[in-house]
Write a structure and sequence with these properties.
The complex is a heterodimer of chains A (688) and B (348). Chain A contains 20 helices and 33 strands. Chain A has 688 residues and is an alpha+beta fold. In chain A, strands 20, 23, 24, 25, 26, 27, 28 and 29 form an eight-stranded mixed β-sheet that branches. In chain A, strands 4, 6, 7, 14, 15 and 16 form a six-stranded mixed β-sheet that branches. A five-stranded mixed β-sheet of chain A has the order 5-8-11-12-13. In chain A, helix 11 crosses helix 12, helix 13 packs antiparallel against helix 16 and helix 19 crosses helix 20. The radius of gyration of chain A is 40 Å and the shape is elongated. With 348 residues, chain B is an alpha+beta fold. Chain B contains 13 helices and ten strands. In chain B, strands 1-5-6-10-9-8-7 form a seven-stranded mixed β-sheet, with helices on both faces. In chain B, a hairpin with a 2-residue loop joins strand 3 and strand 4. In chain B, helix 1 packs antiparallel against helix 2, helix 1 runs parallel beside helix 4 and helix 3 runs antiparallel to helix 4. Chain B is rod-shaped. The two termini of chain B are 79 Å apart. The chains are: A alpha+beta (688), B alpha+beta (348). Chains A and B meet through helix 7, helix 10, helix 12, helix 13 and strand 20 of A and helix 6, strand 1, strand 3, strand 5 and strand 6 of B.
């Protein structure tokens, strides 16, 4: 809202240095985004608040300044040159939709010579960045920006029968507005009509046919009050936003309507017109004055400071409230009609606080006796995941929750995406069902910019419809690895990443959260290349996928090198019970380590070896791990050589070689019968 | 003869001494000094043999040849030693590893700056006894608006321009619905912060995006006042930006708080000295968060009696605050995930 300091001075004799004024306005909540000196005037661009339509005109801002500086509002007379002819004899106003138009005032000004406005008026409008049109239109704009009350002027000669009917539109009615658009009216829209047809869209925009033109002689001035919700719905439905609708949808001052009409009439008669006698004022049900009880103690209770009683009375009175005698520490405060935002005690306390000054309210420490802050397990787990993956060398990314439906389809996750009804763009018109496309996009972007490797993760929600047409929101973890993995130094060069980087990261996350061991099963999935995908399992339930991303998915982002990725449903995972953390004493007795090297058919997976070893009933076998695997000559082409390290330990005593030998023989026997392994030269290390 | 022998002994001694401390370059110099074809000591000795009486020449020749063999053998061995120990093991073999070589380092991933900044905020409030609460990102109109005292069709909704899924289903425009849900299910005292993603139908520009991160806070208890709001938020801002930062509270309007306050901090970029400052537009102040006393209607909506309990709330955009704190000019950098941008925050 533009505010001209010159114009303000019509209403209040403010005379403090301009920077000080701007600062002090800020501290009562009237913030100027810009303050520009122009031809001796100061033009402020004030931020507006949806609840303060009274400050959408100079009068309201002047009232605030008056209250701030202790200056009275200057009253101005608006004399009207009247004809003998009574308004009621030439015009008639009928409201058929009373709920949508609680008050309607009007009068006619005859013989207005339509032409350019006087210099002072042009200056006022130009300060508002408005282009002067003609004196009649300029007067209505002047009244609006002066008082925040929108008025409308009709060419009275174009109002059939001199009858104004405020009614809802009829089905099929249209109106060509002042800008020449043909508006299709809906039956819930309020219109101003004459005997036969709509002549204006009430409170939003006038019709072209009844607009002021060079041929206009007589002007009908409308100053009314319309229902804010109705105006807003109509304006939104038609995609219109005018200075009038902006004010009406926030709430106009119902008491001010007649005065605004007279202001306009006065100005038009000063330009040579003559007004009809008396104002038509349809005001069937004037609302009761709003009265709010304000307790002095409550001010201190909410603000934490004792505001002097006379300050409260003084400031509220200057703002236009009527404050009636303090009774038992409480006042009855009558709210003026222009303060549509005030209906409760808290609203009044805000007024007191604004003018008392937020800076004068002390800063106090929070009272003791705080409730214990509950740990948020989910966030702790997420923090642990981030820490673990950073340790695995992955950078954290955050991608949009929106997705391009085509790229979403390339990921082919199989979930039904949730569309956004009014998206910013059609490339961001659904909510993501998977984190993978976002991560691939990150890979594409960074590889294109010359990075030789991208290893990233993200945690975030994905969305979908479930079978019952209800929306789901699931927390996912996504990982991606493509290109070179940095070496530790010049002594260990960077190497191309592989599927096991991603798998290892998933294993590390499961371990960090004590959901270990992570389970994996070879299972194809449309996001991944056939035969290069694993389902990730926790306690037998599938909670994610990992593998080499499918060609169509990476091609959708124009990435042409192998991309490995994983996606874990953390909502599902966090629903599981992790193994409890248990402290175990460090063993005091030495164990025995034996490395077992053997050949096996290449078609047998290592997972089979692990499964057989894992199921053994060998109380002395503490654990095992794969330490070597190779399949190059001299190993025969159909074989693979594995070395598995077996760790033996007895909890109570030192092992003797004989019992380890026996256990080892049994293990070899099991592997032989289950997997047909051939022991390589029996080099057995004994270490502790 | 005696003089020649003495000369040879002296040269041998000099050679041995020089050899001991010679590096590759030293060895080359030593070779030239002894075996150089014109001025080499050994070459000169051979020339001088001509001056030795014939009867002693044989013995002298043997001595000079012995020296020549010795020098050649020793040099060859030393040179071989230096050659084979080229590179990293060179210094090691010489007993002196090259400690100026770069160390071995494992790359540790960088945390996203928004996560880092959010956690920093979280830590401050955890220290003040706040709990962290979260809620859904797809919300209903009731939780996002109505319960927060936004009547249907109210212009106040314009500032929270909304992305809709269905008539009654939307992407939350702030994390305030979490506050409502927590107030519904728990009794005061309440002391929470609610971080999370929020969505608005904003046309992207350097400081607006349709998705960003927010953290809101809520305190409900008996006897909570605006003075507590000021005290806690001042503490928070100083913890985040440093003890010396100036803070101001000024009136504002939000449907869900009454009175409402906007909180500004002094412009870290220009300290109010640059009238065309990109960050504060010359005002010297930078708006950092919105706050206020919880509106009595909001309390009533969740069955908390505003006569018995009062509270305050705040909301802060993590992105914009992080932009301000780190001097990042464009909000979209956070979501472009350029690793050259992100990795800088590995050291934050």
């Amino acid at each position: 809202m533009k505010i001209s300091l010159d114009w303000i001075r019509e209403h209040v004799a403010v005379d403090i240095p301009r920077p000080e004024l701007v600062d002090r306005l800020t501290m009562i909540g009237l913030v100027a985004d810009t303050a520009v000196e122009r031809e001796g005037d100061l033009i402020l661009d004030l931020e507006t608040y949806a609840n303060r339509p009274d400050t959408l005109g100079h009068l309201g801002v002047a009232r605030e300044i008056g209250a701030l500086l202790g200056l009275p509002l200057l009253e101005k007379d608006w004399p009207v040159a009247e004809l003998a002819e009574a308004t009621a004899d030439v015009a008639d106003v009928q409201i058929t939709a009373e709920a949508l138009c609680p008050r309607y005032c009007g009068l006619v000004v005859r013989g207005v010579p339509v032409g350019p406005s006087p210099e002072w008026l042009r200056r006022r409008l130009e300060a508002m960045d408005l282009r002067p049109v003609n004196n009649v239109v300029d007067v209505s704009n002047y009244v609006l920006f002066a008082t925040a009350q929108p008025i409308h002027t009709f060419d009275f000669g174009r109002i059939a029968g001199g009858r104004i009917v405020v009614r809802k539109a009829k089905r099929g009615e249209t109106l060509v507005d002042l800008d020449g658009r043909t508006l299709a009216l809906a039956p819930d829209m309020l219109v101003i009509a004459d005997e036969s047809r709509p002549v204006a869209l009430a409170g939003v925009i006038g019709g072209r046919a009844s607009g002021i033109g060079d041929s206009t002689r007589d002007v009908f001035i409308e100053s009314a009050c319309f229902d804010p919700v109705s105006i807003r719905k109509t304006a939104k439905a038609l995609g219109l936003a005018t200075d009038a609708s902006y004010r009406f949808e926030r709430g106009a001052d119902i008491a001010f309507a007649p005065r605004a009409a007279l202001m306009a009439a006065s100005l038009l008669t000063q330009m040579g017109g003559r007004a009809t006698r008396g104002l038509i004022d349809r005001y069937p049900r004037p609302p009761k004055t709003r009265t709010v009880r304000l307790r002095l103690r409550r001010i201190a209770e909410l603000l934490g400071v004792d505001v002097p009683e006379d300050f409260v009375v003084d400031v509220l009175s200057r703002l236009g409230f009527r404050v009636e005698g303090s009774h038992k520490g409480a006042w009855r405060v009558d709210v003026p009609t222009f303060r549509v935002d005030v209906s409760r005690e808290a609203d009044l306390i805000e007024e007191v606080a604004r003018f008392y000054g937020y800076d004068r309210i002390p800063a106090a420490a929070a009272p003791a006796g705080a409730p214990p802050s509950a740990a948020n397990r989910k966030r702790e787990r997420l923090a642990r995941i981030r820490e673990t993956l950073a340790g695995q060398g992955l950078d954290e990314v955050i991608n949009w929750s929106f997705a391009d439906p085509e790229k979403e389809a390339a990921a082919a996750g199989g979930r039904a995406p949730v569309p956004i009804r009014n998206p910013i763009s059609n490339r961001a018109s659904v909510l993501r069902t998977t984190l993978l496309p976002g991560l691939v996009e990150n890979a594409a972007r960074n590889l294109n910019r010359g990075l030789d490797g991208v290893h990233v993760f993200e945690t975030g929600n994905v969305f979908s419809w479930d079978q019952d047409e209800k929306h789901r929101e699931d927390l996912h973890l996504g990982l991606l690895s493509a290109g070179l993995r940095p070496g530790e130094s010049f002594m260990a060069a960077a190497a191309e990443t592989d599927l096991f980087v991603v798998k290892g990261a998933v294993e590390a996350v499961f371990e960090a959260l004590r959901f270990d061991p992570a389970g994996f099963a070879e299972r194809d999935h449309p996001s991944f290349a056939p035969g290069r995908a694993l389902a990730v399992l926790c306690k037998g339930q599938e909670v994610g996928r990992l593998g080499l991303l499918s060609r169509p998915l990476t091609a959708a982002f124009e990435v042409d090198r192998p991309v490995y990725a994983a996606e874990i449903d953390l909502t599902a995972l966090f629903g599981k019970t992790p193994r409890p953390f248990e402290y175990v004493n460090v063993p005091k007795l030495p164990g025995v380590v034996r490395d077992l090297s053997f050949l096996m058919d290449r078609s047998v997976a290592y997972g089979e070896v692990a499964r057989v070893l894992g199921r053994l009933d060998q109380p002395l076998l503490e654990g095992f791990e794969l330490v070597d695997r190779f399949a190059d000559p001299p190993v025969p082409a159909d074989k693979v050589s594995l070395t598995v390290r077996l760790r033996f330990r007895h909890p109570q005593r030192t092992l003797v070689a004989g019992e380890v030998d026996r256990a080892e023989q049994e293990i070899v026997g099991h592997l032989r019968s289950a997997l047909d392994i051939q022991l390589r030269e029996g080099k057995i290390d004994i270490r502790t | 003869m005696a003089t020649l022998k003495d000369r040879i002994d002296g040269l041998r001694k000099t050679f041995e001494e020089s050899l001991e401390s010679a590096d590759a370059k030293g060895l080359e110099e030593l070779r030239t000094a002894f075996l150089g074809r014109k001025r080499g000591h050994v070459t000169l000795l051979f020339e001088d043999l001509r001056t030795v009486p014939p009867e002693e020449r044989r013995e002298a020749g043997r001595l000079v040849n012995e020296l020549k063999d010795h020098v050649q053998a020793r040099l060859a061995a030393a040179e071989a030693r230096v050659r084979t120990s080229a590179g990293a093991s060179a210094a090691a073999a010489a007993g002196r590893p090259d400690l100026t070589l770069p160390g071995r380092r494992r790359y540790v991933g960088a945390r996203h700056p928004l996560t880092l900044f959010e956690e920093e905020i979280e830590r401050i409030f955890l220290g003040l006894g706040f709990a962290v609460e979260e809620g859904p990102e797809i919300e209903t109109d009731y939780y996002n608006f109505e319960a927060l005292n936004f009547p249907p069709h109210h212009p106040a909704r314009d500032q929270w321009d909304t992305l809709f899924i269905k008539d009654d289903l939307l992407l939350r425009t702030h994390t305030s619905p979490v506050q409502v849900r927590v107030m519904e299910r728990s009794k005061p005292p309440i002391r929470i912060i609610c971080p999370g993603r929020v969505f608005r139908r904003e046309t992207p520009d350097p400081t607006h995006l349709p998705m960003f991160m927010q953290v809101e806070g809520l305190v409900i208890d008996r006897g909570v006042t605006f003075a507590h709001l000021k005290g806690t938020l001042e503490y928070f801002i100083k913890a985040l930006f440093g003890e010396k930062i100036r803070v101001r509270f000024r009136p504002s309007f939000f449907p869900f708080t009454e009175p409402s306050a906007e909180v500004d901090i002094e412009c870290l970029v220009c300290s109010g000295k640059d009238p065309s400052c990109r960050v504060c537009a010359g005002t010297g102040w930078k708006e950092i968060l919105g706050s206020g006393m919880v509106d009595p209607q909001v309390l009533k909506n969740v069955n908390i009696d505003p006569e018995k309990h009062s509270g305050w709330a705040f909301g802060l955009g993590i992105d914009r605050t992080a932009m301000f704190a780190f001097g990042i000019p464009e909000m979209r950098y956070f979501y472009e995930n350029d690793l050259r941008f992100l990795r800088q925050f590995g050291t934050k």
